[in-house]
Design goal:
heterodimer; A: Beta-Lactamase; Rossmann fold; Helicase, Ruva Protein, domain 3; 16 strands; 43% helix; elongated; B: alpha/beta
């Protein structure tokens, strides 16, 4: 190709170019070449690194192009800020020539339009990823790392590691309230089945018995009065994933039998349907009640208990986790620093002692709430003991209500026994007057009588 | 300035870790809370304060700082940016453990392109995390494995930023 024609073509297409000497100094250049340099003077005889500091350190590469051991070299998307603050982007590339006096050809390509577009795409993609990261850190999926190194928590980690490899195992999570059973269920799910598989959660104590049945098993249109449409149950929704039944100890006996039947056959029928549906799910259940005791009291089916507890993970209470309390607390601070745009570095030694010495009846939930409260009010860069409003609900606290003073014993307690005791106490205080006793428990007289009958107290 | 004392320094790390913020804090002493992703490279320079080496020599470097676009995977183009570097600041975001894992891969690619040159690991956004954070431990363990100094920095609060570049200067002076 004719050199002049080639150079004209480049100039027409808004390229800058220059021929360089063996020492990488400009021999000749077109006008546009100077528009991209950092110096404003004449470019003639100036070294390429003076004009383009971005080429600093490339001496060996340029020599290699001249001696033919490297064909070309390019740097893409070099940023150059104009005086008015606008950023322009260009590519710079080096090519060999046949001319011994000017053996290097340097080509500058303005790529501002393309790079600006790319910047906008990257900006949006990265912002989304950064926001997702923040959300993940605050959501249950982000807890896929179980914090702590104490022996009780290490034991839990080892068990989870093993069961994550066996996707069909049925798992029972036990432990005091606030020990993170729901979080552990999610960790098991995400570590074995990944984020694409469904994770379906329902609290058996939170919804009425009849609704729980239809929620779990689904129903056909017309199955009952308000069944206007067919609705698949949670068992179907959890197909190829995990169904997590929290507070399984509260499941009514009729439903226990139905759940057992499903676990034995892996099949079920929607309410109002004769058609059997087969699903593949992992079942994780959780309770803070003593299930074996419930079995003895005939409040929970023994056969279902054994079915559910193929693998039993007993989650430790916070008070047996030693210095893991501090690790957990620090991680809560990290997460909340991002949410609250604060820069809290940690805890004073008094605060650390307070964290260590508290009994944590509400376990991790109580700890998290205490840290969150402290993060709202802390003024310095470290949380002090007085920022931590913990131990407010202890039995020695005179202002605590009877309800606040009541603490669930670590080994659990029968709900029926408590109810019976309350009824007896109320009757004793009211000296046998049922209306007064009902009032003490904020119940109607009829409800109170019904409960007395239930426990054969009249 | 003696051209021998001009040093090419690469600022590397995953996107959003705060590479540009560190450079802007170091060079212009400014900080912008708004994130703006970098495309390609931005080069600027900063004359360091004189440094006394272990051999009691006083040196002063002019750092040419190459603020390189963030990437999880080191592409051939990013390796081109690293050619001829005298040192690198490998930046992680202390609130994002994945950015610390990626730093290990970046160091590997950097060492292939600029073998034998020193680098410093910077754990940025230190203002956002607690001192006992496991992410700090993770970065310090990486530093021990790679035998590289670790500095916990905050571009926002101007914490350890100058110290990180000075540390790199010292390593270059004694290499």
């Amino acid at each position: 190709m004719d050199t002049l024609f080639f150079e004209n073509l480049l100039s027409q297409n808004l390229y800058g170019f220059a021929y360089l000497s063996p020492e990488s100094r400009v021999v000749t250049a077109n006008k546009r070449f100077a528009r991209f340099t950092v110096s404003t003077g004449d470019v003639q005889r100036q070294s390429i690194t003076q004009l383009f500091p971005e080429t600093f350190g490339l001496e060996a590469i340029l020599s290699a192009i001249i001696d033919g051991s490297q064909p070309t070299f390019s740097l893409e998307n070099i940023n150059r800020e104009s005086e008015d603050g606008e950023i322009n982007y260009f590519n710079i590339s080096f090519h060999p020539t046949d001319d011994a006096d000017k053996p290097l050809f340097c080509l500058i390509t303005d790529v501002t339009d393309k790079a600006t577009l790319q910047q906008q795409v990257n900006q949006q993609r990265n912002e989304i990823q950064l926001l997702e990261g923040i959300l993940k850190a605050q959501s249950s999926e982000g807890f896929a790392h179980i914090w702590g190194d104490s022996e009780p928590i290490s034991k839990v980690k080892r068990t989870i590691e093993k069961i994550a490899k066996i996707p069909t195992a049925t798992i029972l999570l036990t432990g005091e309230s606030g020990t993170g059973k729901s979080m552990i269920a999610r960790i098991i799910h995400y570590s074995s089945q990944g984020s694409q598989a469904p994770f379906v959660e329902i609290n058996c104590a939170a919804i009425p018995d009849t609704l729980l049945e239809s929620e779990l098993f689904g129903y056909e249109k017309g199955a009952f009065t308000n069944a206007m449409t067919t609705k698949p149950g949670l068992l179907e929704t959890a197909h190829n994933g995990t169904l997590f039944l929290d507070e399984i100890g509260e499941m009514p006996p009729k439903l226990q039998a139905k759940l057992l039947s499903f676990l034995e056959t892996r099949r079920f029928r929607r309410l109002g349907s004769n058609k059997e549906i087969s699903v593949d799910i992992r079942l994780i259940t959780a309770t803070n009640r003593h299930l074996k005791k419930l079995v003895h009291e005939q409040a929970f089916r023994e056969d279902l208990f054994y079915r559910l507890s193929v693998v039993n993970i007993d989650l430790p209470s916070l008070r047996v986790m030693g210095d893991d309390i501090l690790t957990l607390a620090s991680n809560f601070v990290n997460g909340l620093n991002i949410s609250y745009k604060k820069s809290v570095k940690g805890f004073t030694s008094e605060a650390r002692n307070k964290l260590r010495n508290h009994e944590w009846p509400g376990n991790v939930r109580e700890l998290r709430n205490a840290i969150e409260r402290a993060m709202i009010f802390v003024e310095g860069d470290a949380i002090d003991a007085e920022d931590l409003q913990i131990g407010m609900l202890s039995s020695s606290e005179p202002s605590a209500s009877p309800l606040e003073r009541f603490k669930l014993p670590p080994e659990g307690i029968s709900f029926d026994e408590i109810e019976k005791k309350l009824l007896q106490d109320a009757m004793a205080i009211a000296e046998g007057n049922q209306s007064r006793a009902a009032k003490l428990l904020h119940l109607s007289r009829d409800t109170f009588r019904y409960r007395l009958e239930k426990y054969h107290l009249i | 300035m003696n051209s021998m004392n001009q040093k090419k320094i690469c600022i590397l790390g995953m996107f959003g870790v705060g590479k540009t913020s560190l450079v802007e804090r170091f060079v212009y002493n400014k900080f912008d809370d708004e994130y703006k992703s970098t495309i390609g490279i931005k080069v600027c320079q900063k004359l360091l304060s004189p440094i006394e080496t272990d051999q009691h020599k006083i040196v002063q470097f002019n750092f040419l700082l190459w603020d390189i676009e963030g990437a999880e995977v080191i592409t051939p183009q990013i390796q081109n940016y690293m050619i001829g570097a005298h040192g690198a600041l490998i930046v992680s975001d202390l609130t994002r453990p994945d950015s610390i894992s990626v730093a290990n891969n970046i160091v590997e690619a950097y060492q292939q392109t600029a073998p034998g040159t020193p680098f410093v690991l910077a754990g940025n956004k230190f203002d956002l995390i607690a001192a006992e954070s496991e992410n700090i431990q993770q970065l310090e363990e990486l530093g021990e494995t790679l035998k590289a100094p670790v500095l916990l920095t905050s571009a926002k609060e101007n914490n350890n930023v100058e110290a990180a570049f000075e540390k790199l200067g010292l390593l270059i002076a004694s290499s």
